Amino acid sequence: MSEQYYPPLSYKVAPEDEGMKVGTVLERRLGVSRKLMSRLKLTEQGIRLNGVRVYTSVKVKVGDIVTCAMEQESSDDILPEPMTLDILYEDEHLLIVNKAAGIIVHPTHGHYTGTLANGVVHYWLERGVRYRFRPVHRLDQDTSGVVAVAKNPYVHQQLSLQMQRDEIDKRYCAFVEGAPLPAVGTIDAPIDRDPEQPHVRIVTPQGYPSVTHYETVRTYAAGASLVRLRLETGRTHQIRVHMKHIGCPLLGDPMYGGLGTEADVRLAALGAELGRQALHAEQLAFRHPWTGEPMTFAAPLPEDLRQLERRLEHPGETIS
Length: 320
What we know:
about 325 residues, alpha+beta, Structural Genomics Hypothetical 15.5 Kd Protein In mrcA-pckA Intergenic Region, Chain A, Pseudouridine synthase, 3 domains, 10-stranded mixed β-sheet, 4-stranded antiparallel β-sheet, 16 strands
């Protein structure tokens, strides 16, 4: 069977590119990484100049068309599994999903089924298309909200670069104990693994740079607040660790929640009823890696967090 390819990237050589090598054009004008370029060299349709397969060392002339095409891939190692998906957007390059709480993004040791990857692979196979599941970022199992999945290695690479340059705007909302002081601020506190509990993260001077911006939206009579957050870095458990660090742990967080005050006892009951940390990835914004178009995706607050908010607004009352 002949190999199938994703839609090709192409670039028309401009006067300032005269005499450049094909590989330089791919790297500077199309943003193709050297790792991806090495893969493209091995395929028949991978790198072409005016429709002809060439070496990356060939020099270009004004008006030449440089193209590269990637072979289609599939996630053969991921078991397809029917799953209800809340798809916010899809095109031939990207899939944007509103992930429900309780769902792991990608199979891990001991969790080979029931993940978002299993459901997405099944969804694609049902439509007769082949893609490899490439999440651009991940959310904790019990965090709900927007997840971006790239359909080819170039798109994944470009979004990863945007993330490294802090060009992807990731915004969250969380219900936390107490009220942050000041109400609006930035938490700049390095994070690393707890040497005594490697699965837990802590703030430590020896940690990796970690920056979270927050804004208090509302403080409730029950002794909790709704906070909106923007990540400048993306460390594991960053929001959960940083909010605990400033004395406002997330409601329902089994790992980082509860500081032992009397108010915590009342809020702990709400958190236990929720059954997960009260954290939702509500918005993701970036430039489309293929078209350059600015794009913003938003996921509404899920029903369990809406119910929590009603309980915080009316403490002591029975909310149906």
